[in-house]
Amino acid sequence: MVSDEQTAAWGLIAESARRRGGRMAAQDVCLACADSIAVTGVGLSLLAGGRLEPTHVVGELARRLLEAQLTSGDGPCVEAVTTGAPVLAADLSSAACGRRWPLFTAVARNSEVRAVFAFPLATGAVRVGVLVLARARPGPLSDVEQGRAFFFADAALALLLDERARDTTVESGADAGVLPVESLALGAQVHQAAGMVSVQLDTDVEEALVRMRAHAFAHDMALSEVARRVVERALRFAPDPLTRRPNGRD
Amino acid sequence: MESHRAELPGIRAFVELADTLVSDFDVMDFLHGLAERAVDLLDVQASGLLVTDQRGNLALMAASSEQSRLLELFQLQNEQGPCLDCFRSGEAVHCADLTGPEARRLWGRFAEEAVGCGFSAVSALPMRLRHEVIGALNLFSTEPGELAPVTVELGQALADIATIGLLHERAVRAGEVLAEQLQTALTSRIIIEQAKGVLAERHVWSMERAFTALRDYARSHNGRLTDIAHGIVTRTLDPGDLIDPPDHADR
């Protein structure tokens, strides 16, 4: 029951893997997807601890889109993974999109991303992540393109799970079962900075991340830019004087 | 015309079974329904399903009545009976007369027990996918005699449906387990990076130095890196306990 179309798509994925000189992986799916659908960028985010973490990115536009998603904490990707249904935003500058994702559209307005198409990855009852396509011009996906996107989402999931199945059979040692730092497509600094800010504010990392996001939003910066400054110790956060407790935890 | 009319309830049963495969799928409900439909459709008086678990051991999954439940368990306990022969060989096993010499020779204790329960004939059909046999469907009749070929065919189709349902359920579960492992692996990486940040801020260390301290602490305390990092991030482990690491020559 594999169509010619799907055989051709797997061919693209395999070709990409050959060029990289590796085994077929989710990165090849993103590359093949960008090749065979008229979009400017492709990204992949996976759920981790209830939040979407960008893990794969193809093209600068997709990087900006994932950055906006990370900074705002909402948007089509978050909605797709929450609802389990694809979210097709053919024109981000429309009033409807602005109402639907006020933070995301505000953050994304300088990013040149004009259309976003998010396809959820799920197996059984477990929601895994989102494959997202970004375009620099508004306009919907054609039916054929949408069909291909569904296929690429399934292919990405299949390869991610296959990789995991291989890993667990060979791994051992202290950091067994930990993805390499390269898996964080937007870098590790956001998380390192969240750890640092949690000490500065004497709070947990979730609260630290909220404060970093608010700072990014207020200063029209990307979250990863805020994180970079924190890690370079050029930016420190001070406890909010109104909520500050007389004695911090020790 | 006659055979056409007989096929209709069969089709209805298959439609119902297919329906349970796609809606909220509960494997035990599904197999129980299948055991009951086998009795209705195949004109036998009882049925039972033995299926392998994930480690390859046979276990009772469903039975249409208390008697067939007991007989399936009896086969498992005594390691003899038509269901076990069918499972081992992957071929259908038919016994038209449980009081006959062959039944007594092959499975004496089982035959005696089955006759005691009021049954006269038994069949076992394999649940098979290519080379893999994952179980068998047992059919019990109170009247002696062979099952009609069309009944055997229909029974085998039911066994095939049970096979598909079970393998489907196992594949889904395997996918879910892998997906959860993937999320844990990514979350672990994030927590390690957060812990590096906590240590870097607390001790005014570089990220590299923070990681070395984390790794050395995990090694010397025989802990997993992720658990130590989680302790640091949630402060159940005092970041002050991880003192300035000495420089290691083995790096």
From TrEMBL, chain A:
Record protein name field: GAF and ANTAR domain-containing protein
From TrEMBL, chain B:
Which Pfam families does this chain map to? ANTAR (PF03861), GAF_2 (PF13185)
**What sequence ranges are listed for the domain ANTAR?**
172-233
Has the keyword Protease been applied to this entry? Answer: no
Coiled-coil region(s): none
Entry annotated with the keyword Kinase = yes
| Keyword terms | Kinase, Transcription, Transcription regulation, Transferase
What InterPro entries does UniProt report for this protein, alphabetically? ANTAR (IPR005561), CheY-like_superfamily (IPR011006), GAF (IPR003018), GAF-like_dom_sf (IPR029016), GAF_ANTAR (IPR012074), WH-like_DNA-bd_sf (IPR036388)
Record protein name field:
GAF and ANTAR domain-containing protein
Q: Which organism is it from?
A: Actinomadura yumaensis
Q: Write the lineage as a comma-separated list.
A: Bacteria, Bacillati, Actinomycetota, Actinomycetes, Streptosporangiales
